[in-house]
């Protein structure tokens, strides 16, 4: 019998960010956060301004069931305004909460590289970089240089062909198109080329969808089928009973 996949969770010990490259132009996190700017008492009362939330640091330690955790879904953990020591505290929690898998994604590969020697790299931390076009394939070179157990590339939103992308020691690629009224649609040949190179290099490939005015509008099929491959999962400690209070807090965290 196949074991049930752990649920996804967002963990946001930092929120807010600033644009760093072309893929940021229609940042969903920014759109979401800015809707609440000026609403006193709201988590995003200051919109998408960068903010540290130290009281959220220990949250994963209270989630007893193994989860797949998207780290800083509303920011970039390697943003230059986040103190070095704070990034180290986030990594220390990931190391301690070894029954979860943590997925970190950055567009700031230079800072990731600078900090990497000072961070623990436990096997439950999956490190990823976003590469939206050939201009940013250097991020994959930086990713190769960090000692992460699992390395992944998010080609989303895909804004151009990734002809110069080197897939050496990359475990997983996920690609997708942009959504929203001003979306920049991907071309089928960019996706086919990426998929074919992943298949040839034995790199897991997933296609999230074409995007559209609304998310999901364009569907998820590429050449008549869905692509849902995943990197190999490591063995994990057995599940234990959840802490109901932490579960309630985490339900809130999905939004904030
Ligand atoms: S790096 Fe990510 S979170 Fe930050 S502005 Fe760009 S898309 Fe948004």
Strand order of the largest sheet: 1-4-5-6-7-8-9
Portion of residues in beta strands equals: 15-25%
Please estimate the helix content.
Answer: 25-40%
Count of alpha and pi helical runs = 7
Q: What sequence of helices (H) and strands (E) makes up the elements? A: EEHEHEHEHEHEEHEEEH
**Broad structural category:** alpha/beta
Shape type: globular
What is the arithmetic mean of pLDDT? 91
Radius of gyration: 18 Å
Unique ligands = iron/sulfur cluster
What does this molecule look like?
- The protein is an alpha/beta fold and 256 residues long.
- It has a domain at 131-232.
- It contains seven helices and eleven strands.
- The protein has helices at residues 28-34, 59-62, 84-96, 109-115, 138-144, 188-201, 244-255, and strands at 8-11, 14-15, 51-52, 68-71, 101-106, 125-130, 150-155, 172-175, 204-207, 221-222, 225-226.
- The strands form three sheets. Strands 1-4-5-6-7-8-9 form a seven-stranded parallel sheet. The protein has a two-stranded antiparallel ribbon with strand order 2-3.
- The longest helix has 14 residues, at 188-201.
- It is globular.
- Residues 237-244 and 247-256 have low confidence and may be disordered.
- Iron/sulfur cluster (SF4) is lined by residues 17, 19-20, 23-24, 27, 29-30, 75-76, 107.
């Amino acid at each position: 019998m196949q074991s049930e996949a752990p649920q996804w969770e967002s963990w946001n010990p930092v929120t807010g960010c600033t644009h760093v490259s072309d893929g940021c132009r229609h940042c969903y996190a920014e759109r979401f956060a800015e809707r609440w700017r000026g609403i006193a008492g709201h988590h995003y009362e200051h919109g998408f301004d960068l903010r540290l939330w130290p009281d959220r640091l220990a949250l994963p330690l209270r989630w007893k069931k193994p989860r797949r955790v998207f780290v800083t879904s509303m920011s970039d953990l390697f943003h230059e305004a986040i103190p070095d020591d704070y990034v180290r505290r986030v990594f220390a929690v990931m190391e301690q909460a070894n029954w979860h898998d943590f997925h970190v994604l950055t567009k700031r590969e230079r800072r990731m590289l600078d900090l990497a020697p000072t961070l623990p790299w436990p096997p439950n931390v999956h490190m990823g970089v976003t590469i939206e076009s050939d201009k940013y394939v250097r991020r994959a070179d930086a990713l190769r240089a960090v000692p992460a157990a699992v390395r992944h590339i998010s080609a989303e939103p895909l804004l151009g062909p990734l002809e110069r992308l080197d897939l050496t020691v990359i475990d997983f690629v996920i690609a997708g198109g942009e959504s929203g009224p001003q979306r920049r649609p991907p071309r089928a040949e960019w996706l086919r080329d990426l998929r074919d190179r992943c298949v040839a290099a034995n790199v897991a490939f997933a296609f999230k969808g074409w995007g559209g005015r609304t998310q999901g509008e364009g569907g998820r099929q590429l050449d008549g089928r869905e692509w849902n491959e995943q990197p190999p999962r490591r063995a994990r400690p057995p599940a234990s009973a959840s802490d109901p209070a932490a579960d309630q807090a985490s339900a809130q965290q999905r939004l904030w």
